[in-house]
Amino acid sequence: MLKHSPRRTRLASLVLASFLLALTACPGDENPDDDGGTNITDGGSTDGGSTDAGDKQPDGGAYDPGPKVCGDGKVQKGEACDDRNTVSGDGCTFDCGEVEAGFECPVSGQACVVATACGNGLVEAAEVCDDRNKESNDGCKADCSGVENGWTCPFQGQPCRAAQCNDGILAGEEECEDGNATNGDGCSETCRLEQGYKCDTQGQPCTRTTCGDGKKEGTEQCDDGDHDMGDGCSPLCVLEPKCVNGTCEARCGDGVILPGDTSEECDDGNVRSNDGCSSTCKLEAGFACVRITQDPPSVVEIPVVYRDFCGVSSGCTAPAIQHPDFNDANGPETGIVGPKFGPLGADGKPIYAKGAGSPVTHGKTAFDQWYRDTPNVNVTEVSTLKLNKQGNGSYLFDDQTFFPLDASGWVGMGKESLLNDNNGIKRNFSFTSETRYWFEFKGTEVLTFLGDDDVWVFINGKLALDLGGVHGATSGTVSLADATTVTGLGLQKGKIYEVVVFQAERHTSQSSYKLTLNGFETQRTKCESTCGNGTVNAGEQCDNGNANGPGYGKCSLTCVWNARCGDGITQYAFGETCDDGNTNDRDSCPNSCQVDPG
Description:
Layout: H1 17-22, E1 103-104, E2 113-114, E3 151-152, E4 161-162, E5 197-198, E6 207-208, E7 242-244, E8 247-249, E9 288-293, E10 299-309, E11 331-332, H2 364-368, E12 378-389, E13 395-399, H3 409-412, E14 419-420, E15 426-427, E16 431-440, E17 446-451, E18 455-459, E19 462-466, E20 469-470, E21 474-479, H4 483-489, E22 496-505, E23 513-517, E24 523-528
InterPro entries: Fibro_Slime (IPR011874), Myxo_disulph_rpt (IPR011936), PA14/GLEYA (IPR037524), PA14_dom (IPR011658), Prespore-cell_inducing_factor (IPR051154)
Family: Belongs to the prespore-cell-inducing factor family.
Protein name: DUF4215 domain-containing protein
């Protein structure tokens, strides 16, 4: 089993998906929302529908032929409007691509006008609420005549919210509603789903989900029905990054924004809309969203998969089958997998390299069972390694009596006997472990292990460290500052790679495991529905409360400024003759943005 010397093991510059995996026990716990209501990011009914499909404009007219030229007063295909200018804030956006919220553009080529209808985001006339759509069951009635039961709509143009948690009515940002304020029953006191639960019926008790049954339910981000790691869905039913040779696929909902990636405007760790970050990881109107570097938590959790075996002379009873590789021969043996820099198998598991067998192994068939679920041969258990933050900022897992399956596996099923360790304590030996995480390569990483049984480390899918065999404490180091190692592993700075650690505990003596990680960083998105509360919060340019709306010089419904004097753009359509980006009245452009012609 893996055992470390007092020398401090360093795994420098672990980033990004390491934190993603570290948080797998609590996914989706930031600003969650239910799936009810309507996605408001399209501006409600004012968007006029698609401008690219078919040969007719949204109002039924024909598109003007010729190339698209915004500002020429002609609506060409690809434009939603054209009011003879290229400025926003007057109903038609600067690029003619969208009719702005609160406006209508009824005549192609002419100025847009302020709309006066339910769904424009403004509470007008006899309206009680207006959440920028004409849909029911999202808090505001379809005709804007009233607020629906269990909801409150405090800000015009913004999504309505739950009036009260624990009232038995599922509404707004609530993920569940079981009618009580008790924690630990699947639905928290703040009406958020608790890890490992699903709550299908409002007002009724929640029930536990079963990760690995192939059905995605409750808090599960995925469920592919297996215990394999590195296949995109972890055995804890959390999305994993998909990386090939340092290049990762951006995955909406995994809570990670990759360096340099522009495909995601946000990622808040879920795929729910109406919480600021949509189901396609696009920013939604009405929320203040900021990217943050995650503050290091006090504890990091990394998924680990254990497979328990019934070793030789372990008192195996049916259906458990005695495995010849466990509790049998002793002796160090490199090359059981390999060669150095050799690849992992297509399924992400080590490839046996000893032909018919070796001094401490018994052939490919037996070895392939070590890290693959095999009925009657092994029992699989999914857990996490909890690493505590140290004073120097590193994270440490250190267990000098590492026996995670003493009460489970074949022993827990009554099919195998406990055996004495060196101190005469009854233990469950004969198991393997597999853990994976990702890091951004910077060229300074050092991995050091001290283990008393098999340990293999793969980086970028290639063997980096071989401590194979059944042996006493043996150390090994991988320095990613070494040019030969970097070349052999095919690493490039700034790219993201997976580290896989395979371990086996195969002899009755002692068992320890020590792992240290350094340099965690990750970027994610945090959104808050604050636009409209009258206070300029992070991510907002302005906020005038219910005075927000369309029009020159006003703060928009999304808490960014419409066209205004002082924005550095001369808005001739609004009477400006200059705009130097300030409202200083003592320079060449006065604070009215109009120069006296005299």
